[in-house]
From TrEMBL, chain A:
Subcellular location, record wording: Membrane
Residues annotated as domain Band: 136-303
Residue ranges, compositional bias (Basic and acidic residues): 73-98
Species of origin: Caenibius tardaugens NBRC 16725
Family: Belongs to the band 7/mec-2 family. HflK subfamily.
Protein name per UniProt: Protein HflK
Domain of life: Bacteria
NCBIfam families for the chain: hflK
Quaternary data: HflC and HflK may interact to form a multimeric complex.
GO-annotated cellular components: membrane
Compositional bias annotation for Gly residues: 24-49, 63-72
Predominant cellular place of this UniProt entry's protein: membrane
Pfam families: Band_7
Automatic annotation (TrEMBL), chain B:
Compartment(s) where it occurs, according to its Swiss-Prot or TrEMBL record: Membrane
Membrane topology: Single-pass membrane protein
Family: Belongs to the band 7/mec-2 family. HflC subfamily.
Function: HflC and HflK could regulate a protease.
Keywords per UniProt: Membrane, Transmembrane, Transmembrane helix
InterPro entries in the record: Band_7 (IPR001107), Band_7/SPFH_dom_sf (IPR036013), HflC (IPR010200)
GO CC, any one term: membrane
Entry protein name: Protein HflC
SUPFAM superfamilies reported in the protein's UniProt record: Band 7/SPFH domain (SSF117892)
Domain Band: 24-198
Keyword Signal (UniProt): no
PANTHER family per record: MODULATOR OF FTSH PROTEASE HFLC
């Protein structure tokens, strides 16, 4: 019930320019309020408002009634009487006076006098109160949010998504928090090196991401003094404990990392549940696992060594292939010739011998020493260059 | 207005006083706090005391009344409070140094005792911090360096928690958890030594891998040679004499013809090749 009142007043305020509901009795069709589209007669009334002093008591809250007259007056009496465009605008609508330089502090909104001559003050005050109540009573909770209602400090209920109504402000307070939104933070927050000791007393530079959300808003609100800091520390402790169970090589391997992630998550959840923190750890992702910067060269050299070893083996394989192929080729060639030879051994043998000799002797310088005791002249410099070889006799 | 003031001056003042007294009689205790009502220096009751398993809304939080002036209210946090320890260097049983970061989490379960002994939560933290440090040193100093790193830490932590809890109870606090956030090697020599060890370890690994590669390559080569020899033997072994001839022919061609080719040969007339040349027979 009260809520609708609040709503109406909000709507009413928005429309107050034209037709103020509380001024309805005054039949105010002609209030030159803040509606920018005031009909021309408005400006007329504004103009006419200058010359006769305002009837009834002035509105102390909206200086427009009295002051705009004093404002527009000098302008009109001034020497500049030509149809200046500013003048035109000034004359046109309620916006005009507002632009007047050196005008009074506030906007020159003028409300017409109430018929009874009463002050607007109680009405405005009432409206403010009603709007205030409305705002503190109506709460819109978004789809991922929940709200906690406390009645003078005491927990009353949890608001679910949608439009919710509570008692007004001093009595009930509402704090709305995104609940199912998954939040995350990275450790370390900056890009600096974070060294963690592994089980085999090596150091690993490790970054990770914790994703979490609130699973029980009231626990989250009321149980921990520093929830975010707690998550951070719990994560840190869990990660270090989990890495300390593994060797360095395991932290580098994919399977080891997945196991560490799972362990950290379980550990964190157990601890946070023990704190009754109302926090659900959604996941732990290890970003990078690197050796410390100081020794990273040595680590790179290990993979380089692997490459070197592979290269060695590859070269050996290539050579082996060549050797094998050659052996097979030669053996096959011999087998073919031998098959022929078996058919006619002596003839083949002789033929091969002469053929080879032809080919060999045809290309070489030949010296035949005829008689025994005759020493042929050998051109020694040439001998030096050329290898002499005597074909072996049979 | 003025007339009202003139006519009812006393009544208005009385009204204001009553209002002020009423206001000061109302105390609002939120869910996150407990409140100790102290009457003339003596704690008389506790509002919203921590009790496990009491659902929120039924813990006694909210608006309560007190006797103004006579009773004062001291608020005590009801939530889990952090107790952080400064980084400490701990000496393990095997004389290794280790930098330890630990934290504890506690909660005030007896606010009256807390107010009487410590006064505020900050005081409790200040009192417990050195205790945590010394308990930690004692407990970790009994263990070897490696067991500090690994999961065996679990029992150490339970011991530390129990010891600290015993002390904390005197302040009306309950230790929920003690955890080592991080254990690090201290900067300087120990860290350098660790780096050196890691580095040499990797160097050894690299050397091993390279040697292994060379070994494998050698084996591959030897195997190929053996297989080739076997292939040759199988083929040529069928007729060694013919192979000798066949291979010699091949060798002559390689040496004299396809070799650089500038060879000179001195032939004796007795040469087998020139047998027919002499026209004998």
């Amino acid at each position: 019930m009260k809520r609708t009142g609040g709503y109406f007043s909000q709507i009413a305020l928005a429309m107050a320019g034209r037709r103020s509901p509380w001024g309805g009795s005054s039949g105010g069709g002609d209030n030159g309020g803040n509606g920018g589209d005031g009909p021309p007669e408005d400006s007329g009334s504004g103009g006419s408002g200058d010359s006769p002093p305002p009837r009834g008591p002035r509105n102390p809250w909206l200086p427009g009634g009295g002051e705009s007259g004093g404002d527009a007056g000098p302008d009109r009496d001034g020497p500049r009487r030509t149809g200046n465009i500013e003048d035109l605008f000034r004359k046109r609508g309620p916006e005009g006076p507002r632009r007047t330089p050196g005008g009074p502090g506030g906007p020159n909104i003028r409300l017409p006098e109430r018929p009874g001559g009463g002050s607007w003050f109680p009405l405005v005050l009432g409206a403010v109160v009603v709007v205030g109540l409305g705002i503190s009573m109506v709460h819109q909770v978004g789809p991922k949010e929940q709200g906690i209602v406390t009645t003078v400090g005491k927990y009353s209920r949890t608001l679910q998504p949608g439009l919710n109504f509570t008692l007004p402000w001093p009595i009930q307070q509402v704090s709305v928090e995104p609940v199912s939104t998954i939040r995350s933070f990275r450790i370390p927050a900056g890009g600096q090196e974070k060294l963690i000791l592994t089980g085999d007393q090596n150091l690993v530079d490790l970054t990770y991401l914790i994703r979490w959300n609130i699973k029980d808003l009231k626990q989250f609100r009321f149980q921990l003094a520093q929830p975010e800091e707690t998550i951070n520390e719990v994560a840190e402790a869990a990660m270090r404990a989990s890495v300390a169970e593994r060797t360095l090589d395991e932290t580098f391997s994919g399977a080891g990392r997945a196991e560490i992630e799972q362990r950290v998550r379980d550990r964190m959840q157990a601890v946070l549940d023990a704190y009754r923190s109302g926090i659900a750890v959604q996941g732990v992702e290890i970003g990078k696992t690197d050796p410390p910067e100081r020794v990273v060269e040595a680590f790179k050299d290990v993979s380089a060594a692997q490459q070197d070893a592979d290269a060695d083996i590859n070269r050996a394989r290539a050579w082996a292939q060549q050797v094998l192929a050659q052996a097979e080729g030669e053996a096959a060639a011999f087998d073919k010739v031998y098959a022929e030879y078996k058919l006619a051994p002596d003839v083949t043998r002789q033929r091969m011998y002469y053929e080879t000799m032809e080919r060999v002797l045809g290309k070489t310088n030949k010296t035949i020493v005829e008689a025994p005791g005759v020493t042929p002249y050998l051109p020694l410099p040439e001998i030096k260059q050329r290898a002499t070889k005597k074909p072996e006799g049979q | 207005m003025e007339r009202i003031w003139e006519n009812h001056k006393l009544a208005l003042i009385a009204l204001a006083v009553v209002l002020a007294v009423l206001m000061s009689a109302v105390v609002i205790v939120p869910e996150t706090q407990q409140a100790v009502v102290v009457r003339t220096g003596e704690p008389v009751r506790v509002i919203n005391r921590f009790r496990p398993n009491t659902p929120y809304g039924q813990t006694g939080a909210g608006m309560v009344l007190r006797i103004p002036i006579l009773e004062s209210v001291q608020r005590v946090d009801k939530r889990v409070i952090a107790l952080d320890m400064e980084r400490q260097q701990v000496l393990s049983a095997d004389q290794q140094r280790l930098q330890v970061d630990a934290y504890a989490r506690f909660r005030i379960i007896d606010p009256v005792l807390m107010v009487e002994t410590a006064g505020t939560e900050e005081q409790v933290v200040a009192q417990l911090q050195p205790i945590l440090t010394s308990v930690l040193r004692q407990e970790l100093g009994r263990r070897s360096f490696t067991s500090l790193l690994t999961a065996e830490r679990g029992t150490a932590m339970t011991n530390i928690r129990n010891k600290l809890d015993r002390q904390a109870r005197e302040y009306g606090a309950q230790i929920i958890d003690v955890r080592i956030k991080r254990t690090d090697l201290p900067d300087g020599t120990p860290l350098e030594a660790a780096y050196t060890r890691m580095q040499t370890d990797r160097e050894r690994e690299a050397a091993t891998i390279r040697a292994q590669g060379r070994k494998d390559a050698q084996i591959i080569r030897a195997e190929a040679e053996a297989t080739a020899a076997k292939t040759y033997a199988l083929s040529f072994g069928k007729d060694p004499r013919f192979y000798d001839f066949y291979r010699a022919m091949q060798s002559y061609v390689t040496t004299f013809e396809t070799g650089e080719g500038d060879s000179s040969i001195i032939l004796s007339p007795d040469n087998e090749y020139l047998r027919q040349f002499r026209g004998t027979r």
